[in-house]
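Sequence, structure tokens reproduced for reference:
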Amino acid sequence: MLAAFVLFESASPWSVVSAISNPFNLAAYALAVVLILVLKTRQKDKPIPPLAWGVVMLLVLIPTGFSLYQKLSKDTLYRVRVTVLNDQKLPIEDAKVWSSVGGEPMKVAGGWHFEIPAAKRPQDGKLTIFASQETAHYWRGAHELQLNNDYNPAIVIQLELDTSAKVRGQVVDSRGRAVVGARVSVAGYEADAVITKEGGNFELPAHAAAGQDVRLHAEKRGYGVADLYQRVSDDPVILQLKR
């Protein structure tokens, strides 16, 4: 408070105003200066009452503290430590790691390290870290955490086989004509078989990841059967029934 008063007494009003950039601070400081001037004019040679000094101090300290808090929050870093485990629950070094808010992960002994500025903290405070194995991208994992007062969280990501891929295509007869009503399945998962629709088209869970091989089976009475080993991808496959 004394520093603010000295500043007002020793500097020109313009230098004081120009040093203030936040509108909220500017308004509070202006009120403090006006209050000091009014009190000095009315009291003349008498000392300013302590209560008045308290009001002035609040007008100066509250916005100043708020601005300081904003600056500290903006400059604060969340340092997230990430460990990735394989299917045997052992830490691995050959993983690809990334986050939902971007930023380059830094490789450290036994894992990875993210530095995320508090200013980039999502509005809901939720951050998701993703990981996949470089040598086998169908092993993937993710971990969601809440960014709060813990600025040094440590998380573990367990990789699991990604079996979310689908296989799609068309069933045709020996002459290349679409077959409606054919039963199509992935070997080993016959319970999830589907029946081809108009145009002979089908889509079913691959029970594997993109890039893995599966065996497809199709059949329809009177048309024959078809078996095909196929690598799972977004490209449609053709199953030709043969008697």
